[in-house]
Amino acid sequence: xxxxxxxxxxxxxxxxxxxxxxxxxxxxxxxxxxxxxxxxxxxxxxxxxxxxxxxxxxxxxxxxxxxxxxxxxxxxxxxxxxxxxxxxxxxxxxxxxxxxxxxxxxxxxxxxxxxxxxxxxxxxxxxxxxxxxxxxxxxxxxxxxxxxxxxxxxxxxxxxxxxxxxxxxxxxxxxxxxxxxxxxxx
Length: 186
Hints:
- The protein is mainly alpha-helical.
- The protein has helices at about 25-35, 35-45, 70-95, 100-125, 135-155, 155-165, 170-175; strands at about 60-65, 70.
- Strands 1-2 form a two-stranded antiparallel ribbon.
């Protein structure tokens, strides 16, 4: 008697299932983008002001095209989220070929949105911490952006690994899905 195959976890990526449907990736992609305005709303509304906690210092302003001057520290903080969103959307639309289920996409939207809203609350309460300085934001952003670039630069090493591991099968795959290829990105 043959063993019954275990049903795939709907809250995970369906490894080995290359029958992609658009609702899962669209929900995950658009839902993740919602985190940015949500964080911006939390920062601008500053809910902790009801507890007499002052706003974090702006430490100058950045003049953004089409938007105008914005507080420098808030813009850097939101830039870290924007970097994550760019990486995740590159993964959703460029790298991931497996099926993304709606439950996985929903989970992948709600949990990070809650986490990022909490991060925005912590950021807005920074002025109440006597040890907080703008240098904390600059250092965190520096580490964040260096990590993003390092991860992005790991792509050629992954491509080399796949070429060595799968050989002709990998080259055949790259020819079949050429439309998904970007220089240095598979």
